[in-house]
């Protein structure tokens, strides 16, 4: 057994001791660690207390990692690139365009990372190989799990966009004076550094090794914590609690409150302008409201399962990778990943269907702009300047 395998065995023994099993180096295939269970113990995935069978959990994981991820990546990659180009063309000196540009970038990086992470999964399933792939092992063992933080960065951008829109609608003149693009950029950079740095520590606690089970005579790549995490477990778990529960709950709460306030304010403004015959401006604000509801609702819906999972982790100690409910835990993790993939892939369609300025920019990129559309854009800009609602116009991608 190599020095690296010996180190892995020591770390894995420290984690499993008193919980599931002892680890020895007996009869292990090359590069693998043998799992020797004590009498009357089970593999974590075969524990009879599991609420879900390993077969069902594995099938759903394959459907998400091979089916949905591959399809959604083929949608997400080009659409996020198109969105980045469109917002850049509209001018990233505008606050909202800068935020939407960075959100599309974060979604692109996150989806690309996951696609590479599971790129060999289909091949392994066809040849009945281990469920944890070589790519997964390489990513975890080289501390690249921190790239998951781009999903949190995307969520943070949703919070910034919703808050900026709310401030702009409620107090347009003050927001123009206080929320400058440079200030917004500095806040975003600082937040990205904090999110990435914290997630690097949280994500780096896990590594992966080839485990051989004498009971089933099969091998699998299993995730387990590193030794330094076990030595500082309380500190890392506290940090993980902040990132895992407090941040998503805060994000969802802020997006919900700011979106509700924005919708209420715009509804009142729309009603007033309809009574004063400002039909064109009212139509534009109705479109803005629809887009805001669409993007914010998508984020909130896609975040609910993650919040529920984190609450279950706090309430049920065995709801974990190596606990009695490991299959259910893994199933919920796959559900969370699926919703995150969806949230990172479909914003383009919301922008295109509800954002007239965004739609026109994309059409121009592909040479499909028309004279009628050019006149419409000029007319809308003239109306905006005359009505003094320039802040609202900047919110319309």
UniProtKB/TrEMBL annotation:
<protein>
    <recommendedName>
        <fullName>G-protein coupled receptors family 1 profile domain-containing protein</fullName>
    </recommendedName>
</protein>
<dbReference type="GO" id="GO:0016020">
    <property type="term" value="C:membrane"/>
</dbReference>
<feature type="transmembrane region" description="Helical">
    <location>
        <begin position="139"/>
        <end position="162"/>
    </location>
</feature>
<feature type="transmembrane region" description="Helical">
    <location>
        <begin position="298"/>
        <end position="319"/>
    </location>
</feature>
<dbReference type="InterPro" id="IPR017452">
    <property type="entry name" value="GPCR_Rhodpsn_7TM"/>
</dbReference>
<dbReference type="Pfam" id="PF10324">
    <property type="entry name" value="7TM_GPCR_Srw"/>
</dbReference>
<keyword id="KW-0812">Transmembrane</keyword>
<feature type="transmembrane region" description="Helical">
    <location>
        <begin position="100"/>
        <end position="119"/>
    </location>
</feature>
<feature type="transmembrane region" description="Helical">
    <location>
        <begin position="62"/>
        <end position="88"/>
    </location>
</feature>
<keyword id="KW-1133">Transmembrane helix</keyword>
<keyword id="KW-0472">Membrane</keyword>
<feature type="transmembrane region" description="Helical">
    <location>
        <begin position="242"/>
        <end position="264"/>
    </location>
</feature>
<dbReference type="InterPro" id="IPR000276">
    <property type="entry name" value="GPCR_Rhodpsn"/>
</dbReference>
<dbReference type="InterPro" id="IPR052954">
    <property type="entry name" value="GPCR-Ligand_Int"/>
</dbReference>
<feature type="transmembrane region" description="Helical">
    <location>
        <begin position="183"/>
        <end position="208"/>
    </location>
</feature>
<dbReference type="InterPro" id="IPR019427">
    <property type="entry name" value="7TM_GPCR_serpentine_rcpt_Srw"/>
</dbReference>
<feature type="transmembrane region" description="Helical">
    <location>
        <begin position="339"/>
        <end position="355"/>
    </location>
</feature>
<feature type="domain" description="G-protein coupled receptors family 1 profile">
    <location>
        <begin position="79"/>
        <end position="351"/>
    </location>
</feature>
